[in-house]
Design brief:
This protein is of the alpha/beta class. It has a single domain, classed as 3-Layer(aba) Sandwich (Rossmann fold). It has helices at about 20-25, 60-70, 90-105, 105-120, 145-165, 195-210, and strands at about 10-15, 30-35, 50, 75-80, 130-135, 170-175, 215-220. It has a 7-stranded parallel sheet, with helices on both faces. Helix 1 links the parallel strand 1 and strand 2. Helix 1 (about 20-25) crosses helix 6, helix 3 packs parallel to helix 5 (about 145-165) and helix 4 (about 105-120) runs parallel beside helix 5 (about 145-165). It starts with 8 loop residues before the first strand and ends with a strand. It binds NADP nicotinamide-adenine-dinucleotide phosphate. NADP nicotinamide-adenine-dinucleotide phosphate binds near residues 38, 84 and 186.
Length: about 220
């Protein structure tokens, strides 16, 4: 498997989010970054936006849009889809909220995996590296963020199944086990330690450059 230390073309799902935007900012100096977004961003971004409003429902539209714009072959995909909230208990929030969280988390990750498989197919079975970001809620039952725990745990199995069933994509997951710095939604009272975006970026690049040295799911702790 080829080793890349620089100049990968990286496709980021969730590029408009806290982690996606931060990763693009940290990685853009050494890599070409394309960000898949549902609406055109306002102002300058560290990534080249590819706007596909319904990419979760029509993941192949992302591959078509990349081809239409003449983008170079993609080497790696980062899925930073989902988000974070603390709200009422899981059951009290009701089935509509549960369905909505399924759409934002697990369904988005499924669609991102679909794009990676299609990219590998288009590249003649070449090696696409796919990294899904996940958090501590996937291993701990987080009170008030219950759906994130449920879909985060399922996300790990999605990546494991996808890895077991493919020959052409290196599916990996990185669980960031602490709040990521700079996210105002995190409750940091009581001197909670955070992981910086540059640490996350370094860990992401370590996995993407040498996926064979990493387990399917790895953890980044403070
Ligand atoms: N923030 C943290 O402290 C932290 C800590 C550990 C792990 N993580 C992991 O990092 C990843 C990203 O988190 P984040 O904090 O960056 O989240 P975020 O700021 O809320 O961003 C979420 C991203 O997901 C996209 N998204 C949400 N629902 C969608 C849907 N239904 N269809 C398509 N796109 C959708 C959003 O796109 P739109 O802008 O188009 O809605 C946005 O780009 C998650 O996997 C999380 O587990 C975050």
């Amino acid at each position: 498997m080829a080793e890349y230390t620089q100049n990968m073309h990286i496709l980021i799902f969730g590029a408009s989010g806290h982690v996606g935007t931060g990763l693009a900012h940290h990685l853009a100096a050494e890599h070409r970054i394309t960000g898949v977004v549902r609406s055109r961003p306002n102002g300058e971004t560290a990534y080249e936006p590819v706007v596909v409003p319904d990419w979760v429902d029509r993941p192949r539209a992302v591959n078509e849009e990349l081809a239409r714009t003449g983008a170079p072959p993609v080497d790696a995909v980062i899925a930073a889809v989902g988000g974070w909230y603390v709200d009422a208990p899981l059951i009290d929030r009701g089935i509509a909220a549960f369905d909505q969280d399924y759409s934002s988390y697990l369904r988005g990750h499924f669609a991102a995996c679909t794009v990676s498989e299609a990219l590998a197919e288009e590249g003649g079975g070449g090696s696409i590296r796919h990294l899904a970001l996940n958090g501590v809620a996937s291993v701990e039952a987080c009170v008030g963020s219950g759906a994130i725990s449920v879909f985060g745990a399922a996300q790990e199995m999605l990546i494991r199944v996808a890895a077991a069933e493919t020959k052409s994509v290196s599916h990996r997951e990185l669980k960031v086990m602490a709040p990521i710095g700079g996210d105002d939604r995190n409750d940091l009272r009581g001197a909670v330690e955070t992981v910086s975006l540059s640490e996350v970026a370094d860990a992401v690049i370590a996995v993407l450059t040498r996926p064979e040295d990493h387990e399917i799911s790895t953890q980044l702790s403070v």
